[in-house]
Task: inverse folding
């Protein structure tokens, strides 16, 4: 890349369009090669890190950390929909209770 930049500086000083075009073509080729190499590296590293640690080891580490912190893990987690619905019901009940209290206060 440094050579391309130096070549571009020389071509710009001379204002030779053929030279500028050749340097730009070289730059484009090097950039495409770099893009391919980067994509290959990203795929290789993501594949290696995703497969490298077995799920059992991860679960053991989570359990061990929770035990050290004195936290109990709930193995049977609710589905997100059930948790959201329960949260909405609880919020509705609180809202209705608050409205009921306000109504009682207005009546007295």
Result:
């Amino acid at each position: 890349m440094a050579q391309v930049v130096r070549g571009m500086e020389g071509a710009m000083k001379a204002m030779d369009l053929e030279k500028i075009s050749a340097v730009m073509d070289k730059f484009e080729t090097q950039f495409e090669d770099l893009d391919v190499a980067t994509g290959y590296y990203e795929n290789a590293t993501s594949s290696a890190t995703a497969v490298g640690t077995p799920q059992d080891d991860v679960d053991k580490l989570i359990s061990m950390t929770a035990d050290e912190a004195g936290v109990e893990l709930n193995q049977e987690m609710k589905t997100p929909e059930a948790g959201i619905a329960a949260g909405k019901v609880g919020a509705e009940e609180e809202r209705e209770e608050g409205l009921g209290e306000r109504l009682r206060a207005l009546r007295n």
The longest helix spans residues 17-52. The mean pLDDT is 77.
